[in-house]
Design goal:
Layout lengths: L1 E4 L5 H14 L8 H5 L3 H7 L6 E8 L2 E10 L8 E9 L8 H15 L5 E7 L3 H9 L3 E12 L2 E11 L1
Helix pairs in contact: 1-3
């Protein structure tokens, strides 16, 4: 397994992996599969460019992109010490093999190496117990829960908010 930063050349594989994650675990994400599918290849490549606002890491096994994690540093000066973690996913066939933990630990190491960064933040839906346990194994801790955070398909979901201090 290799965890590395994705580049614009990875856009086709990124599209496949992200779309599969949104289709497999729709309750874990705010974006829907049709919303993502509507994005152009150029827009996805721009998202992976070296000058993009975020950094997307990928877990690659035998040449196949099987896991994703995106880091976004806050841009407002009073919040620039914070990095948000988004879009974490591991393909179902690769779960239980340490890819998720490798991605999260690599993301933490990278973000905490950035000058001035003191903490990482993420939210996880109340239905995603395995993801929450993964984040907690990697050092994140729940600091609060937002009730009535998301309404989808007639269900009301809470979000657990987690933090890791560098």
């Amino acid at each position: 397994m290799q965890v590395r930063r994705l580049t614009p050349g990875d856009a086709p594989a990124y599209r496949v992996a992200r779309l599969a994650a949104l289709q497999t675990d729709p309750a874990a994400f705010l974006m829907t599969a049709p919303e993502f599918a509507a994005q152009t290849e150029e827009a996805l490549a721009a998202r992976l460019a070296p000058d993009a606002a975020g950094v997307t890491l990928g877990a690659v096994v035998d040449g196949q992109l099987l896991g994703l994690l995106t880091l976004m540093r806050e841009s407002a000066p009073p919040l620039a010490h914070r990095v948000n973690v988004y879009g974490v996913s591991v393909a179902p066939q690769a779960r239980g093999q340490g890819l998720g933990e490798a991605l999260v630990r690599a993301g933490v190491t990278l973000a905490c190496s950035w000058a001035g960064v003191t903490s990482l933040h993420l939210a996880v839906m109340d239905t995603q117990d395995a993801a929450r346990r993964l984040y907690e194994r990697c050092g994140f801790r729940v600091w609060g829960t937002q009730p009535d955070a998301v309404r989808r398909d007639g269900r009301v979901h809470a979000e657990h908010w987690l933090v890791l201090e560098c």
